[in-house]
Structure formats: structure tokens, C-alpha cells
Amino acid sequence: MLQLIRLELRKTAMGWYVNTALLVNLVIALFMGVGGYVIHSKGLILSISFEEVFSAIGAAVRALFTIIASVLISKLVLEEYKNRTITIMFAYPICRRTLLAVKLFMICGITFVAIVLSTIVAITAFCGINAYFDFIPISFTASNLMVLGFSVITFALTATGTSFIALLFGMRKHSVADTMSSSILVAASMNTFFMEKSVITQVGIPMFLAVIGIGCAAVVFRNVETVDVA
């Protein structure tokens, strides 16, 4: 398994992903900085809590990286089918499911780590901006940090699972366009309910979408032995 992962990493240039992740974090930080300056210069008072800001930032990060995950799916899976380069991998004495499992594991790991790190970076950036402009009172305790950390990891896991919904749509015709468009719709549906007060809505919807995403990946994994290369 590790040898196959190393082979995939050598075969697929990941510099674009790192650059995209850095750009996303920079854009989020700039957006918060400019917004903070405008709010401060106009003397506006924010009537929101840190928890609401945390939810909004987390939702934005997860939506963006769900879309970026579709690009990763396209590069690691769909383009290889479309360009028939996957046939080289199928020539090895390894079953197709093992090869697909390696690719899905990479997509899952990269997306999860990117969401967690980007959420931490975005929250840290907001805390720095808030310390300068003093929008809302923020106080951290050990218990609060544990809850926030658990929330970041949990929602990163659900967003990672949800990103596989696009895989099923893309594998139907090995279409990058279908993968991208479906991921955008999924990201939009993820963020529809993030400001709701109901715990069932805030937690239940992401978990439900994650289950659907895992189910989509399972369907693709089950059928990979019988799917012909386009």
C-alpha cells in the first residue's frame, strides 16, 4: 500500500494543490482583514458570538475544499480513465480495487488534513484581526479549546466523506465537468444550514451527506472491476 502511495505521489504533481490551499487561506485572511477594516472604520458593532464566527469560517473552508477535492478526484481518478493512462496501472499484478483504494485514501487524507489546517489558520487569522479591531470578546479555556478541536476534526471528517459524492457523478461518463458541477452543488447544500440553531440541522445534515458520500465511494469501489476504460 505504501509503495503504491509513493508511486502515485511521484506520478502526480501535487504542487498545484499546495498552491491552491495557500491561496484559499490567503483570500480568506484578506477577506476578513478588509471586512474588519471596513467595520472598524464605520464604527459598526457586531452582534454575533465567536461560536457563530467559528461556524461561518468553518463552513466556508469546508465548502471551498470540497470543491478542490473534486479537482483532486479528477486528476487522480477521472483523467486517468479519460486519458487511458489507468491501463498502465491495471497492467500490474494488483487488483483494480486496491489501486482505487490507494487513490481514495490519498484524496481522503489530503482533503482532511487541508480542511483541518486551513480552519486552524483561518480561526487564528480572525483572532489576530479581532485582537487589533476588538470586534467581539473572545476568551479561551482548556475545555473550550477541546470542544473547538473536536468540532474541527468532526466536521472535517464529514466534509471529506461528503466530497466523494462527486466521484460517483464523475465516474458515470469519466467527466471532469460533472464532477466539478456536482461538488459545487454539494458545497452549496452543505452551507445552506450552517447558521441554523438546531443541533440536528448543524450536525445531522453534514453527517447525512457524509454517509451518502461514503456510499457513493463504496458503489464506485464495488463496480471498479467491471468498469471498462473509456
TrEMBL record:
Instruction: Tell me the keywords, alphabetical order.
Output: Membrane, Transmembrane, Transmembrane helix
- Residue intervals passing through the bilayer: 16-39, 59-78, 99-126, 146-169, 200-221
Is the keyword Transmembrane helix assigned to this protein? yes
What is the designated name of this protein? ABC transporter permease
